[in-house]
Each structure stands twice: as structure tokens, then as C-alpha cells.
């Protein structure tokens, strides 16, 4: 791995403002992949840009959760993900219908066991997903901001710094309260009683 | 088990904080207890939704990089023609450069008094060309060429139009330039402002450190010490070690 790569990865892992700067640098460094792919795939430029963004976000997420171990350079790794994303987009265009694996995202939660994944795939249905999506829309601005920052992979300490909370513990407590509020379900409460 | 307890358990499961035995208990409950499964599932969906909303926002931010570049839009049909178009454009650019270069050389040899002006014209042309690139490259170009005056004006302009998060970066850069230009008072105003605007950074805020080294540039050791004390009084401040070293030297 190049020194430049190591430096960028360290900056991303440092978090918040360092992460933002390093992300911008890394993003712009390989933005030319889009132009290179113009003649390679039957996709228009906006689709290629979207694929590049998806690939870039996947790379950053993998740097953050340690799945990117630096066995290859960031360029090679990003290029591989970008190619896969382009192929996915081409396939999606070829047969424009919803995937039957709507709950495939469950497998991205790396700590879930295979038993849990299979049980959850049976339990989760479209109606349940819609319910939670609707509940998210009703959520207050503070909670929504906290949860989306959490979803972006910022640590409790970073969110505390960003949103002006006292400390990481307060963030954890507030997140827990927000989740309880979000998943307030009268029907279910009755069931549990 | 009530809902809050299930949420806590689910949170620990998703973050990988459950031991093997607890994990097995949860797996068993997911397979046998429907009410437990329902609450757990909703918790997982909510986390996934948060992740997706965050990703959507992030992607929106990333896509603006492409808009800033103002790349020409293309369709699949025009892809083949593009290469030809680019070659022609390159040929025209090469001819233009040759003519421009010849003119510049002629001008250089025939009117030595105008040398400075000619140089600045070439320089201006390069800056104009850079206008088509990203703001980051433009600033880097000016700064690397030690054109701190232009770089400061550029950062100042960007500061007024940047979004909330980027504002801090441009403000910081503006301060660097003023510091390089030894315009200490102005640099100090910018760094003080940065400290106020950048409250979100808390202990990571470098503004205090910048203020300290600006006072040092002004040879005002007392003020410098006072700012260093503020850094030292804030436990775990990112500039703690540097501040300690400088304090010793003073």
C-alpha cells in the first residue's frame, strides 16, 4: 500500500473533520474512473456517477469497520467495487424488476449469526419495513439527525462533538430513547402484555 | 422481557457486544418467540433505515462533486463520437499553445521591459484555466505557488459561498494565508472567529493553537502564553503536546 493511502486511511479513521477532508481527497483522486467507464458499460454518465458514489461509500464503510485490510491499494479496491457496481447497474437495467431478495440487506449486519439471519428473513416483511419508514418521517429533527449520523458510521463521541451534546454516554442514552420513541407501537405493546 | 430490554439486547447484538451464550439465547428466541422476533425485527429495520437515510444524504453530497466539475453530459449514442471530438479539441489546443508559446517567446525577446507583465498574463491564463477545476485544486495551486494574497482572496470568496461544514475549512485556509503574509492582526481575527464558529469540534478545534502561533509571530509572548494555558486547561486537547512544548520554550 502507498504512503498516501495509509495517510488517507488514518485520516478517515480519525473521524469527523479529518474524515471529511480525506474523503473529499480520495473521492476526487479516482473520480476519473467514471470517464474511463463511459465506453466500457452501456450506462449513461449519471448512472456511472451514481455507481462511483456507491462504490466510494462502500470503500469508506469498509475502511471504518475494518473490512478493508489494506491488502491491495485503495485504487485497486475501489476500482473493483466500482466495476461490480457498474455490472449491477447494467443487470438492473437489463431486467428492470424488483429483486426477490428484498431482505438481502440483513446479511450486511456482520455480527448476526446465520440462524438469526434466516429467522429475521422470515419475520421481516414489506409492511413492517413501511411502518418503520413512516415512523421515521414522524420523528423529531433532533432524533432524526442523531440517528442518521449514527447510520453514517460516526462514533458516539464524534456525534456528541458535532451536535453539541455533553459526552458519548449522553448520545447513547439519547439514541436509545429515540429508538424507543421510533418503535412505539400500541398494537405490539398489547401483544407483549 | 419488555421492549426496552429487547432493544438493548438487539443493540448489543448488532454492535457485536454479545457473548456466545447470549447470542445463542437470542437466536433461540428469534426462532421461537414471535413477539420477541417482532420487536427485534423492527429494531433492526430502524437501524437499517437510519443507515439508508444517511447513505442517501451522503450520496447527495458526493454527487455535488460531479456537478461542480461541470462535466459535459453524454448519452450512450454520443459515446463513440466523443473520442473523435476530444482528439480534435486536443489538436486545436496544441495549435493554440504553439501560437501562444511563440508569441510569448517573441514578446520576451523583443520587449524585455514587459517581461513581468507577460509572465503575469501567462499566470493569469493558468488561473483562468484552473477555474474549470475544483475549488480545492485552485486553492492548492495558488498556495503551492506561494501566491498567498490570491489564495487568501480565493479562500475568502469560497468562505462566503461554501456550505456550513466547508465554511470552517475555507476560514482556516484564509487564516493560513494571512499568517503566511504576516498580516497577524487579520489572521488573529479569522482564527478567533474560527474558534467561535467551530464549537462543534470542541477539543479537536485547532483554532486556539493557530491563535497561539499568531501571537508568537507578533512577538506577544504574554498573549501566546495565555492561549497556550487555555489549551493546557482543556484535558485531552488535540494540541496538548505541542502546546506543552511551546510553553516550555517560552
Q: Nutshell version of this structure?
A:
The complex is a heterodimer of chains A (193) and B (250). By secondary structure, chain A is an all-alpha fold.
Record keyword descriptors for this entry.
heterodimer; A: 193 residues; mainly alpha; Rna Polymerase Sigma Factor, Chain: A; 2 domains; B: 250 residues; 12 helices; 79% helix
Nearest-integer average pLDDT of chain A = 83
The helical percent of chain B reads over 70%
The global form of chain B is flat
Cα end-to-end separation of chain B: 62 Å
**What is the CATH architecture annotation of the largest domain in chain A?**
Orthogonal Bundle
> What is the count of distinct domains of chain A?
2
Protein architecture, described:
- Helix content of chain A is 70%, strand content 0%.
- Chain A contains eleven helices and no strands.
- Chain A folds into two domains: 3-94, Orthogonal Bundle (Rna Polymerase Sigma Factor, Chain: A); 124-185.
- With 193 residues, chain A is an all-alpha fold.
- Chain B is an all-alpha fold and 250 residues long.
- Among the domains of chain B are: 1-56, no CATH class; 85-132, no CATH class; 182-250, no CATH class.
- Chain B is 79% helix and 0% strand.
- Chain B contains twelve helices and no strands.
- In chain B, helix 6 packs antiparallel against helix 7 (148-161).
- Residues 71-78 and 111-119 of chain B have low confidence and may be disordered.
- Classes of the chains: A mainly alpha (193), B mainly alpha (250).
- Chains A and B meet through helix 2, helix 4, helix 6, helix 7 and helix 8 of A and helix 1, helix 2, helix 3, helix 4 and helix 8 of B.
Helices and strands in order, then pairings?
The complex is a heterodimer of chains A (193) and B (250).
Chain A: H1 3-14, H2 16-29, H3 33-37, H4 45-64, H5 74-94, H6 114-123, H7 126-138, H8 141-151, H9 156-163, H10 168-182, H11 186-192
Chain B: H1 3-14, H2 20-32, H3 34-69, H4 79-110, H5 115-130, H6 135-144, H7 148-161, H8 164-180, H9 184-197, H10 207-217, H11 221-233, H12 240-249
